[in-house]
Amino acid sequence: MRAIGVTGGIRVAIYGAGMAGNQLINALSRAGEYQPVAFIDDKKELQGATIAGVHVYAPEALPALINTKAIKKILLAMPSLSKAQQRHILNKLASLKIKTLVTPPIKSLVSGLARVQDIREVEIEDLLGRDAVEPDHNLLAKCIAGKSVMVTGAGGSIGSELCRQILRQQPARLILLEMSEFALYSIERELQDVRKQLQIDMEVVPFLGSVLETAKCQKILRTFHVETVYHAAAYKHVPLVEHNPIAGVRNNALGTLSMAQAAIAAEVKCFVLISTDKAVRPTNVMGSTKRLSELILQAFSRKQIKTRFCMVRFGNVLGSSGSVVPLFRKQIMAGGPITVTHPDITRYFMTIPEAAQLVLQAGAMGSGGDVFVLDMGDPVKIVDLAKRMVHLSGLEIKDELTPDGAIEIHQVGLRPGEKLYEELLIGDNVEETEHPLIMRAQEAEMPWPVLQGLLAELEAACDHFDYEGVRALLLRIVDEYAPQCGIEDFIWRAQKSQRQGEAVQYTPVV
After folding, report:
1. Which of 51, 89, 119, 474 is spaced 20 to 30 Å from 35 by Cα?
2. 69 catalytic residue (yes or no)
3. What is the fold, at CATH topology level, of the domain defined by 137-318+349-376+423-441?
C-alpha cells in the first residue's frame, strides 16, 4: 500500500494495525495533527509488514521505539476488543509512562465519520470497565412498560441514569422527584429532548420536593396512579454525612420510611430501594442509615401485601458525584499532588449505566423483602488506580525511587467514617437468581412493632438535636454498626469546644 505521507504533527505509535488502525491513519492524514511513525500489533502475521508506509512492530519493541523514533503518544486503535483485552493492553502501556489515547468506535472509523477530534483520553471505564452482560429485556420492561413510574432523587448520578433507561422502556408516565431545582431542570429537559427524538408517547412530570413530605408524595402517587417507585434519593457522601448526621438520618432513613408509607397508602405495586455496599457492617452514619432503610422495607414487606418492596446493593459507580476519578484527573492536570486516604484502601467500581440496568432487572425479581446484591467484579486498590492514571497521562510518579517524577501521591489518612474495605454481604447466606450478575442475600430482619418504636425515638432525637441519642439509637437498631470515629457533627463539636474553652478545628470533608 502506498504511503499516506503524513510528515508533520506529534509523533505517535498506533497500537492496532488492523482495519481500525488503517482507517485511523487515513483520518490522521487529513488532519495533520499527528504523525504516525510505527504500528504496534500483537498478531505475529502482521508484524514486519508495512501499512500505508508505516512499519508494524511487536509490542516488545515499543520501549526502544519510543526513544529511537521520538514517540510522544500512543493511540490505541482496537475498538472491537473486549473490555478485558483492552484493559490488559492498557495495563502494559501504563508501565511505559507515555500518554495513551483511545480512538473512536469502529463504526465511525469504517464509515469515515471519525475525526481526529474524536480521539480521547483514557477514561476510567477503559481501566476498570467490564464487558456488559446482555440484559433480560423481559425483566427490564416488567415493572415499567406502559406503567406510571416514579424516580426519587431523579437528578442524581444514579437517579438520572435510571430515568434515561426507564424512558427507553416506554412507560406511560415518568414522575421525577428531586430537591435540587437545577438538577431537576437538567434531567427533565434532557428527557424531554430524548423523548421527542425517539418519538416516545409518554408524560415526563417533574416535581420539586423532598421524600420527607409524606402527604405530598402520597398525593403525587395517588393522582398519577404510580405503580413502580425507584427510590434513589439519599445523601451518599460519607464524610459530609458524618459531619451532618441528623440530616443523613432524616433524608436517608426517615425519608425511606416516609416514601414507603406513602407508597403503601397509594397502593404502589413495586418499590425498589437503591442501597449501597456501605450498608454492610457500616462504620459510618451514611452506611448505618442505608442499612436502617433496608430494615424498614424488610419490616414493611412482612406486615402488608399491597406493595412489593426490594433493595439493590452495589458499590461505587464510576463518574458519580464525589467519585475519586474526576478528582484524580483534576489533580494530575494541576501537576499534583494526588491525595489518597490510605495505601491499602480498596473499592468496588461499576459504570453508572451498568448499575442502573441491573437495578431495573433486579427490581422485577422477588416476592417482597428481597435484598439483591450486584456482582461488582474484583475490588480495586485506589493507589494503584491513581498510579495507572498518572502513567497513562504520560507522566511519572515522584517518589524515593524516581525523584525526578512529575506527580506526587500524598497519603492524607482515612476520613471520618471511612473504612479500608467495603463488603456486599453481611452473612454467607446468598443464592443465585435468574441473572448471572444479581444475587439474593438473606439478611437479618427486625419486626415492625419493635422497629416502629425505635424509629419514633430516633425521630424525636433528631428533632431535639440530641446527637448522642442519635448515635446510641443507630447502634441499637443496626447490630453491625461499628463507628470508625466519634461524633463529628460540626454543631456538636463546636458546642463541646466552647464548653471546654477550646478553639474549634474544622477539617476538610472532600
Report:
1. 89
2. no
3. Rossmann fold (3.40.50)
